Amino acid sequence: MRALQYVSMLFVIIPLTALIVCSLIKRSRQNAAFYLLSAFAAAQVGLALYGLMLFNSLNISEYSFGFHITQAVADVFTLKPASLVMLLCIGLVSFTSLLVAYKTMPANKKLSYLRLLSALIIGMNGIVLVNDLFTMYLFIEIIGISSFVLISTTKTEEGLESAFIYLVMSSLASIMLLTGLAFIFMRTGSLKFEYLIAINNTSAEVSQNALTYLSYILVISGLLIKTGAVPFHSWLPDAHQSADTSVSVLLSGIVIKAAGVYCLMRVTDIFGNLYAIRLSLAILGVITIAVGAMFALHQNHFKRILAYSSVSQMGYMLLGISAGGILGFIGTMLHIFNHAVFKSTLFTNAAALHEEVHTLDIDKLGGLQKQMPITATTSLIAFLSTAGIPPLSGFWSKLLIIIALWKANFIGFAAAALVLSIFTAAYFLRLQMNVFWGQTPEHLQSIKEVKGTIRFAEIMLTIITIAVGLGFPFILLFLEASGII
Amino acid sequence: MEVIITICLGFMLVFAIVAVMNKSLLKSAIALALVSIFLGVILYLLTAKWAAVFEVSVCSGLVTVISISAISLTHEEKEQLQKKYMDKRRMAMLPYLLILCGFLLVFIVLTAKIQLPYDQLAEPSTETLSEALWDNRQADVWGQIIILLTGAFAVVTLFKEA
Q1: Disulfide: which of A1, A183, A313, A443 matches A215 by Cβ 3.0-4.6 Å?
Q2: Residue A313's CB: how many other CB atoms inside 10 A?
Q3: Are B134 and B61 in a shared domain?
Q4: Does any CB of chain A come closer than 8 Å to the CB of residue B96?
Q5: CB contact under 8 A, A146 and B120
């Protein structure tokens, strides 16, 4: 128990230390801060894995903690296995982003990037750990502020414009969230998750009420804007395209999931099994998958295709949430992890292309398989995983989500999810053919494979994709043995 | 008490509209500060005393100081700014209309004697400030500190020429 106490506190202390160090360090020593933050991100991955092991050996389902400097302090944070999986993703994606930024970020922007990244990590760790709706909103705002500035760090015109669009959309989300929270507070007098779940299950007066329904709609719409689900997705492709690639890795890899999907999962926990909400989330999910994939088919910018692909994959997570039940929950968590890994791989490939070829317009690229074999292979594996081809990791999470939908009697949606994954294969096949396969044009003959940290990140993430895919039957067996499914 | 609250709400509406529609940034900032002061009064009357203190000191004090100092740093000439907004003339009647609507709303509420839901009003809290902020809402305090830090980094990143 003592070990768990230290591990859980470290998830708050580590990013705070990083933030303090990064804000005090001089520009001339920024590389030291770079190494330190990378070590911290890697440590978070290790700690999350260790925490999962501890949870398994102690046989508990959650652990609450706070910083008890005075005696009467309430436990303000709660650690669960699901939050450990999120913390693992946060550490992994931040580490990847740091590896990419080491090459792509201009030297005079590195320190700002490090400071904002540590604030972003605090925000995401906070969201994952809190047990109160209002605190969750506060940490969503931290994520928001740091991502606006991260998108516009390079100060290009497109960067500033897309950051502004994101700012406007986010303010809309904040207004909706706050109003919704105020309504919930009016009805119940508390915003603690535990209390809300309990009162929703026991008191029909609270749970079946026009004001409560209105607050659900407001909160869910606010979170859907943060997720980038389809009617609210307009900010996402611009932001991903114009930001530095290391920032795109963060945005697509983890930010939209921590501030969007994960919060949505926690909020739907409160509402219980309201059929109307689950049905509307399922419909939105299918529309999101379809529209994201359609748009991705018609783009010519490498990162824009990846951004629309992220929109499309968010749809699968919405479907997982709508299915509900333990299977849907595990499927969604696993898809969050898998998407973090393979989308980071693809954005790292984009960084490699940008470093070597200096363009991401897929019409100007072609036949790079021979020149950049590692980038081409890792990209192929990541896209096969995204499309859900067995035995790669993406296949298992999509399978779980579809089985969960089937069990929840959403048979039509399960079929739609299955059919629409063909589109995923279609737009990635187009990407792969235009960039890596076929004849190499004259001006691309002299291109060399990318070196250093970016190559390391590509290989590391691909190994994780394959390893999780091959090892997943064992994870399933373990879950079955411990009685979870 | 309802009368004061309703009148304060009306003033808030009026000054909010002034803040959005005024051509001068300085006057907008002052109008925004006035909105916060009236909100502070309402919070005080609704027994949320600490919230009222923070609303008045931070939102109408600190934020106004920051925005006015930011406005004083802008270089664009006043006439140029005004010229820029000249073509917005077709909206000229809108603020007056909105202000009129605000007064009308206050009038209707006062004459119709709409009661505030007093049975839902919270009991005055017995918590001390340290109990409320540190013991029960510790995570929020951390969050606020980090938001301020992030805001400072944001300003440095965006406005400092490296």
Answers
A1: A183
A2: 27
A3: no
A4: no
A5: no
- For the record, the structure tokens of B56 come out as 């008045």
Q: What is the dihedral of CA A455, A461, A465, A470, to 10 degrees?
A: 80
Taking only the tens place, the pLDDT of each residue in A85-138 is 999 999 999 999 999 999 999 888 889 899 999 999 999 999 999 988 999 999
Cβ of B131 within 8 Å of Cβ of A146? The answer is no
**Window 182-221 of A, Cβ < 8 Å to B:** 186, 189
d(CA A475, CA A396): 11
Tokens of A187: 């009805």
In this complex, do A149 and B157 lie within 8 Å of one another by their Cβ atoms?
yes
Whether the CB of B143 is below 8 Å from some CB of chain A: the reply is yes
Size of interface A-B (CB pairs under 8 A): 78
Instruction: Enter the ipTM.
Output: 0.84
Q: Who contacts A78 (Cβ-Cβ below 8 Å, separation ≥6)? A: A62, A63, A64, A65, A129, A130, A131, A193
Specify whether B10 is located in the same domain as B69. yes
Instruction: Report the distance separating Cα B13 and Cα A132, nearest Å.
Output: 31
The alpha-carbon gap from B139 to the nearest alpha carbon of chain A, in Å, equals 6
Answer yes or no: do B150 and A145 touch at CB < 8 A. yes
Are both B55 and B9 inside the same structural domain? Answer: yes
Percent of chain B with pLDDT over 70: 78
Tens-place pLDDT, residues A375-418: 999 999 999 999 888 889 999 999 999 999 999 999 999 999 99
Please tell me the distance from the alpha carbon of residue A212 to that of residue A467, in angstroms, as a whole number: 44
Number of domains in chain B: 2
Residues B117 and B136 reside in one and the same domain: no
Same domain, B141 and B111: no
**Does B127 contact chain A (CB < 8 Å)?**
no
Asked if B137 has any chain A CB less than 8 Å from its own CB, the reply is yes
Token pair, residue A338, equals 């898998």
For chain A, which residues make up each domain, given as ranges?
A: 274-485
Phi, psi of A192 (to 5 degrees): -70, 135
Cα distance between residue B45 and residue B51, in whole Å? 11
Same domain? For B81 and B140 the reply is no
Is there a single domain that holds both residue B74 and residue B98? Answer: yes
Residues 6+ apart with CB under 8 A from A463: none
Cα distance from A399 to chain B (closest Cα, Å)? 38
What domain range includes position B155? 127-162
If we measure between CA atoms, which residue out of A421, A136, A410, A133 comes closest to residue A280?
A: A410
What is the Cα–Cα distance from A260 to A271, expressed in whole angstroms? 17
Neighbours of A199 (CB within 10 A): 18
